[in-house]
Write a structure and sequence with these properties.
Radius of gyration of chain A: 25 Å
CATH architecture of chain A: Up-down Bundle
Number of helices of chain A: 16
Oligomer: heterodimer
Helix content of chain A: 55-70%
Structural class of chain B: mainly alpha
Structural class of chain A: mainly alpha
Number of helices of chain B: 7
Number of domains of chain A: 1
Largest sheet of chain B: none
Strand content of chain A: under 5%
Largest sheet of chain A: 2 strands, antiparallel
Distance between the termini of chain A: 9 Å
CATH superfamily of chain A: Cytochrome c oxidase-like, subunit I domain
Shape of chain A: globular
Distance between the termini of chain B: 11 Å
Order of helices and strands of chain B: HHHHHHH
Shape of chain B: flat
Radius of gyration of chain B: 22 Å
Strand content of chain B: under 5%
Chain lengths: 590, 235
């Protein structure tokens, strides 16, 4: 195709880039502009702010846990009930209210419309409702700290029968508030999830084909689809458990004799709850991981000035991980007494996930191979993610095998594994992403020196916390135990290691103050960033205003001519070609 | 869980079909970084966003109901399971819900032919039948309660209340959407908008009717042998 025909074709084809059936809502007052906003960018900041705030509560909970494990009985406030409540709330908040909300509600809302070239989400009103229902869910959860009996201490998995029995802390009000809050969260999330999925399907600007979407959008899109299909599992489990608790039905509750008295329950199946819970619970890991995968791909490509290696393979890997992760939930139930044949099936599917995941890791490494790597703060966090994720993923291969899992299942090894793979790794990506997109959100750069200090303390500190836990696990130190007491098999040195881990946890937690200081200080005093400080290609960096105005794109939507990874293209005037830059002379259509 | 398996095969095939239709397999792709594919690949008309949104929502609702059914079949196996007798009014309710669905289909057709009066008539019939269905379901609940079959007395009763209740709540949500559509019909301003809202309502009604027929079959015990097959398959 010659240049002349290209130009001509451009003239012949002026279909509107605008999607007609998406109406843009215009706020009329301060309240509808900043509080009850229908602008996805504001909703994103509300989501992320709420998620981080509740995440800080969970951080404090983790300190409570660690203090007890290092100095059993030294702090009178931390009795067994408070310990289990802290464990429960830490887990539930971090997994659902923090990670899920910030990746999908926060980054999803901010990045999807900008990256696909839309003016806003497809259903802005529903999007606003989604945030307010989420906030309500968070408040209901927080309220459980202030009711008699306190929050539930059932463990984040809320397994019946113990979750609603009288021996468990918070079994009178805490558990009801927890279940109600989860139900609300799922309702709110479904509203948001519809938006993320439909906006990717419908809101893309002209030229933005699926195979030109930045991987961030692919990751968030696949995670949103999975979440829409997986959260109903938790929803059903919560509703049925709530009925067991309030109406005395026996969905999950078996016949139980307590204190010589036969409870009203009869014949229910706790295993059924486990199936429903983990039907949600496992995909949840990837609901958190897939957006992280996507974001990391974009960070690496941008800061290494090189196109992502194997873009199409990356997309298919995301899809494959999404599909496979729906059929592996049983690996959380190896010790539940289910049919051993199931264990075989679930071990096979679990280990099969290693294939697409390994493809992604190889592609990241090959992207870095002989690239022009800039060690900026976002890049450091992205590299930290790869290392941590590989580390956590490899222990996953151990635990995915039934025979290895059975002895390790109740030990600290599992705690180390899932914190590495779905705790530390996604959190590193969240930080990297904030350092990367902060200039777009505020128009100012975060301070690089503080950022690097923050990175090194967080990264090395996280390893200091979770790496020794593998060792404790292999020694046989059990997880969930309030107090270890004297055992024949755990040496005294384990206590010293526990103290070391706790010290690291306190330091890493406190070091996050550097990050918060940086975020607030840079709002006013940061270096002005301009519209595209990282010289990135994807659409969000090409907006006419920074931070992007209402409607994102001024008068005309951008038109997309290429994928999001045109870095260091030979013959290009600069080392990057924005997705919406008109084609170069000689750049040819395949 | 075989129910979930079936449901996911369905969802996955729809997703795969859609990905292929979007040209994921054939779209050109250049790892060297030189890629220019001129706009055109996606000039195919896109369906309206609201319709796609509804489709996605139906997938979520379908997932919810499949999970409830899966739980039903798994719990059914326990020895304490005693299916309650089917209240006779469920037959009447089923007929009313079919009528409601049919009426909305006719309303949609009338909107296509720009007959505002027809739209209004069928809207009233459809909405009225749906309300009647809800009342009938309440009546069925009362009938069970009158016989002493409470949710706490047997898991089969609990599932009866849970399944019918979840289904009824979905219908209540649908009625809210139908009320908005009716508002459009009576204010008479936006005929094109009315037609598309009616289409969405009709799709949703057909979906709920389909779900109800399956639930009815399960509650009446006609699907028991299916449950047995499922459990044999997975145990």
């Amino acid at each position: 195709m010659t240049d002349a025909t290209l130009g001509e074709k451009e003239n012949v084809l002026p279909p509107p880039a605008e999607v007609e059936d998406v109406e843009l809502y215009h706020a009329k007052s301060w309240l509808t502009h900043y509080v009850f906003s229908q602008d996805a960018k504001i909703i994103a900041i509300q989501y992320a702010g709420t998620a981080i705030a509740i995440g800080l509560v969970a951080l404090v909970m983790s300190w409570v846990i660690r203090l007890q494990l290092a100095f059993p009985g030294a702090i009178p406030f931390i009795d067994a009930s408070h310990y289990y409540q802290a464990v429960t709330m830490h887990g539930m908040i971090m997994v659902v209210y923090m990670l899920t909300a910030i990746f999908l509600g926060g980054f999803g809302n901010y990045l999807i419309p900008l990256m696909v070239g839309a003016r806003d989400m497809v259903f802005p009103y529903v999007n606003m409702l989604s945030y307010w229902v989420y906030l309500l869910a968070t408040l209901v959860l927080t309220a459980s700290f202030f009711v008699p009996g306190g929050p539930t201490g059932a463990g984040w998995t809320l397994y019946p029968p113990q979750a609603i029995m009288s021996g468990t802390p918070g079994n009178d009000f805490g558990i009801i508030l927890m279940l109600a809050s989860l139900i609300l969260f799922i309702v709110g999330f479904t509203m948001g999830g519809l938006n993320y999925v439909v906006t990717v399907l419908q809101g893309r600007t002209r030229g933005m084909t699926l195979m030109r979407l930045p991987l961030t959008v692919w990751g968030i899109f696949a995670a949103a689809v999975m979440a829409l299909l997986a959260f109903p599992g938790l929803f059903v489990a919560c509703v049925m458990l709530l009925l067991d608790r309030t109406l005395g039905t026996s969905f999950f509750m078996p016949g139980i004799v307590e204190g010589g008295e036969h409870l009203k329950y009869n014949g229910g199946s706790p295993i059924l709850f486990q199936h429903l819970f983990w039907f949600f619970g496992h995909p949840e890991v990837y609901i958190v991981a897939l957006p992280a995968f996507g974001i990391v791909s974009d960070l690496i490509s941008t800061h290494a000035r090189k196109n992502i290696f194997g873009y199409r393979m990356m997309v298919w890997a995301i899809v494959a991980i999404g599909v496979l992760s729906m059929v592996v939930w049983g690996h959380h139930m190896y010790v539940s007494g289910m049919n051993p044949l199931f264990g075989f099936f679930f071990a096979v599917t679990t280990l099969a996930i290693a294939l697409p995941t390994a493809i992604k890791v190889y592609n990241w490494v090959l992207t870095l191979w002989r690239a022009d790597i800039h060690f900026t703060t976002p890049m450091l966090f992205a590299l930290g993610f790869i290392v941590t994720f590989v580390n956590g993923g490899i222990t996953g291969l151990y635990l995915g095998n039934v025979i290895v899992d059975v002895p390790l299942s109740a030990t600290m090894f599992v705690v180390a594994h899932f914190h590495m793979v779905m705790g530390v790794a996604p959190v590193l990506v969240i930080f990297g992403a904030i350092y990367h997109w902060y200039p777009k959100i505020t128009g100012r750069m975060l301070d690089e020196t503080l950022g690097k200090i923050h990175f090194w303390i967080t990264f090395l500190g996280a390893y200091a916390i979770f790496f020794p836990m593998h060792y404790l696990g292999v020694l046989g130190v059990p997880r969930r135990f309030y107090e270890l007491g004297e055992t024949a098999f755990v040496p005294h040195s384990a206590a010293a290691l526990n103290i070391f881990i706790t010290m690291a946890a306190l330091i890493v937690g406190a070091a996050q103050a550097i990050f918060f200081f940086n975020v607030f200080w840079s709002l006013r005093h940061g270096k002005p960033s301009g519209s595209n400080p990282w010289r990135a290609t994807s659409l969000e960096w090409q907006t006419p205003e920074t931070p992007p105005g209402h409607g994102n794109w001024g008068k005309e939507l951008p038109i997309v001519y290429r994928w999001a990874y045109a870095y260091s293209v030979p013959g290009a005037p600069e080392d990057f070609l924005p997705q919406n830059a008109p084609p170069l002379k000689g750049e040819h259509s395949p | 869980m075989s129910v979930m398996g079936l449901f996911f095969v369905l969802i996955a095939s729809i997703a795969l079909w859609w990905l292929i239709k979007q040209g994921v397999l054939r779209s050109s792709f250049a790892e060297e970084g030189e890629i220019v594919d001129f706009p055109g690949a996606e000039l195919l008309p896109r369906p309206p966003a609201a319709k796609v949104g509804l489709g996605v929502f139906l997938a979520v609702a379908g997932c919810l109901f499949s999970l409830l059914c899966a739980a039903f079949f798994m719990r059914m196996d326990a020895p304490d399971w005693q299916a309650p007798p089917v209240p006779g009014i469920l037959w009447f309710n089923t007929a009313v819900l079919i009528a409601s669905s049919l009426a909305l289909h006719l309303a949609e057709r009338a909107a296509g032919q720009r007959e505002t009066d027809g739209v209004k008539t069928w809207l009233v019939v459809g909405g009225g039948c749906a309300l009647l269905f809800l009342l009938g379901q309440l009546w069925a609940w009362r009938e069970l309660a009158a016989r002493g079959l409470y949710a706490s007395s047997n898991p089969a009763n609990a599932f009866f209340y849970l399944l019918t209740g979840t289904h009824a709540l979905h219908l209540v949500g649908g009625l809210a959407a139908l009320a908005r559509t009716a508002h459009k019909a009576w204010s008479g301003r936006d005929i094109a908008g009315l037609a598309s809202s009616l289409e969405l309502c009709a799709i949703y009604w057909h979906f709920l009717l389909f779900v109800w027929l399956l639930l009815f079959a399960m509650l009446a015990g006609w699907a028991d042998s299916f449950g047995v097959i499922c459990r044999r398959l997975l145990s």
